[in-house]
Amino acid sequence: MGTHRWNTGRARRAALAATLAGGLLLAGCSGDTGTGTGTDRTAARGSGSGNRAPAPGAPAPAPGARDGAPRPGADGRDDEAREAPPAGHLSTFALDVDTASYGYARRTLAEGRLPAADTVRPEEFVNSFRQDYPKPGGNGFTVTVDGARTRVENWSLLRVGLATLPAGRHDERPPAALTFVVDISGSMAEPGRLDLVKESLGVLTDQLRDDDSIALVTFSDEAETRLPMTRVEGNRDRFHGVIDELATSSSTNVEAGVTTGYDTAVEGHRKGATNRVVLLSDALANTGETEARAILDRIGDERREYGITLFGVGVGSEYGDALMEQLADKGDGHTTYVSTSEQARKVFVDQLPAHVGLRARDAKAQVAFDPGKVEEFRLIGYDNRRVADDDFRDDRVDGGEVGPGHQVTAMYAVKTRPGALNGDGHLATATVRWLDPASRAPHERSGSLTSGALAARLWDDGTKPGLRVAAAAAYFADSLRGGELPGAPTRAELAEHADRLARTTESKVVAQLAEAIRRADDLRD
């Protein structure tokens, strides 16, 4: 998997983790907890990065209490404190629901090319498959921890799954103030680029509520505000007219588009609404500042002051994946990739209107492995989302903003000590920490796994289909990056596993995964 590091020390601090802004995604994963449904509690607010974080499974310290001291849980029961393991047995990351990497890899493979290794992000492959995690009763998450043994002795694959409550048909949500920033440069003339964007925006216009607002900015070598922030009510025909007039022009100045987009969003900012910039582009910047940091430095103050997030929608057979990901990460947002009308409709029609709300702010996860049973482990992916272990309960450190119905899955390759799976003792605890969207009060929820829960073999028919799908996606992504995870099947074997899973689950998207794996196997050097 290219360069990768086996965990023997504390996790490195990431740059800013992407916040997920309750927006638009194609992804999720599923399963059951290894030993129960998890423990929910209201947590003490972190005071800074200088305090050592208690291990997941140990309660957060109450205000004024020392770290690790027991305190009542949200349900009034005392949580059992567990001694924090050594730093080398903690893994901490900010939540992420991006899926663009998998979508672009499928497009590349369909065109007869292997995706570049640096565009492959395993978590985005895994998070492209929605499953059946249990749902919480309100804001916040459920926590699922499960796993199975691989064919290599003492190596298992462990899955941590987090899920928020979907939006109900009649759920109230805040109004949306959406600024669409549309690339109309010459490269967008290719079929499946601007034509797909125009179709998507046209359909979306008819789906939004009357109290929502839309602004539209276009850019090529320069940027232009085609429509200031305008209420939907009474203006749908006007929106359609502006969209229909969009046509391609010259070069791609992403800097001008994003900067003007944020200027327009700030000018039309609506208090109490979900304010978001949606960038639709192939991200092949060739004019102005082409580095994401330089672009976002120009609008950083407005972003922080007004809380406007950026969601990137990538299009095109040639796609600036790295730039789009950096823009979304630094712009407190996330990305997806669309190449067909069906995918675009799913994002802009099925998901955007329902996912404008927010379930959790600054969400992070931390997994604590029992050092007596786990010899080494590796988090598969999340390379740009790692957070220092000590910052797990520092609420000044950014996490992910997660909306209704979102799911996040993290996969770990875990080497247990000889004989560790013979009993049924504690193996690992996963904890998610988030801030309430309204009050910003911190909360945590945990789920644990016992060694006895790893009795099943990964590819046996009796192992949960969701776990096997997540494993296939993770192994496939790792193989595209040149990795060699212990117990990983060959691509031909993976394709067979995915084919069997597609028949078992009757899932079109799993069948597409099998097809992508088979194409990659045919293209291998």
Describe this structure in a few short sentences.
Pfam families: VWA, vWF_A, YfbK_C. InterPro entries: CLCR, Uncharacterised_YfbK_N, VWF_A, vWFA_dom_sf, YfbK_C. The protein has twelve helices and 16 strands.
Written description of the protein model:
- InterPro entries: CLCR (IPR051266), Uncharacterised_YfbK_N (IPR022156), VWF_A (IPR002035), vWFA_dom_sf (IPR036465), YfbK_C (IPR021908).
- It holds the Pfam family YfbK_C.
- It comes from Streptomyces gobitricini.
- Keywords: Signal.
- This is VWA domain-containing protein.
- The chain has about 525 residues and is α+β, with helices and mostly antiparallel strands.
- Strands 1, 2, 11, 13, 15 and 16 form a six-stranded antiparallel β-sheet that branches.
- The protein has helices at about 100-110, 120-125, 195-205, 235-245, 255-265, 290-295, 300-305, 320-330, 340-350, 465-480, 490-505, 510-525; strands at about 40, 90-95, 140-150, 155-165, 175-185, 215-220, 225-230, 275-280, 310-315, 335, 360-370, 375-380, 400, 405-415, 425-435, 440-450.
- α3 packs parallel to α9 (about 340-350), α10 (about 465-480) runs antiparallel to α11 and α11 (about 490-505) packs antiparallel against α12.
- Helix content is about 25%, strand content about 20%.
- β15 and β16 form a beta hairpin.
- It is built from twelve helices and 16 strands.
- The chain is globular, with a radius of gyration of 22 Å.
